[in-house]
């Protein structure tokens, strides 16, 4: 399965990251696990926020320390992004979880999300996270399948208005 590698963003990937963002915008997709890429006005703005959010001392207000990775395939193409939150605040405990991820539309249905999540769980072990919470929208069957394939155990659903969030735990012990 090792078709992907997770790498930290850097200036070398600027064009790929902006192309990734533009593909999501063109398709009207949600950019989950991209550390706010959707709202960044430029690569430089996004990259500074990414660096700030790596450490407790510099994390942006209202956020928790997190590491965002690029999922790069064997041809060096950016196929997905995944964000690992080092800890949970109340919002993440209910709705966001430890990990958020997305795969560009042109690369979906190839098993990349499952592989990305598997690789990110190894990163969680390095961060000494023993139980990983992953959530998804109840209507996102593909994401639920990805979580289950990686050992996710369904805990419950949280209803917020018309939105239903499913919560899964993965034990890394």
UniProtKB/TrEMBL annotation:
Pfam families: Acetyltransf_3. Transmembrane segments: none annotated. InterPro entries: Acyl_CoA_acyltransferase, GNAT_dom. Residues 23-173 form the N-acetyltransferase domain. It comes from the Bacteria. This is GNAT family N-acetyltransferase. It comes from Clostridium saudiense. The lineage of its organism: Bacteria, Bacillati, Bacillota, Clostridia, Eubacteriales.
């Amino acid at each position: 399965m090792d078709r992907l590698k997770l790498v930290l963003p850097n200036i070398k990937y600027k064009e790929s990251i902006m192309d990734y963002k533009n593909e999501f915008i063109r398709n009207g997709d949600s950019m989950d696990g991209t550390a706010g890429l959707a709202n960044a006005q430029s690569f430089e703005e996004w990259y500074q926020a990414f660096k700030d959010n790596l450490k407790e001392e510099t994390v942006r207000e209202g956020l928790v320390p997190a590491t965002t990775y690029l999922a790069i395939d064997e041809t060096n193409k950016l196929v997905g992004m995944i964000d690992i939150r080092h800890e949970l605040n109340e919002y993440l405990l209910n709705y966001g979880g430890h990990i958020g991820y997305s795969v560009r539309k042109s690369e979906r249905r190839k098993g990349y999300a499952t592989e990305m999540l598997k690789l990110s769980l190894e990163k969680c072990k390095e961060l000494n996270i023993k139980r990983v919470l992953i959530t998804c929208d109840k209507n996102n069957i593909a994401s639920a399948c990805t979580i289950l394939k990686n050992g996710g155990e369904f805990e419950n659903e949280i209803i917020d208005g018309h939105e239903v969030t499913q919560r899964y735990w993965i034990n890394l012990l």
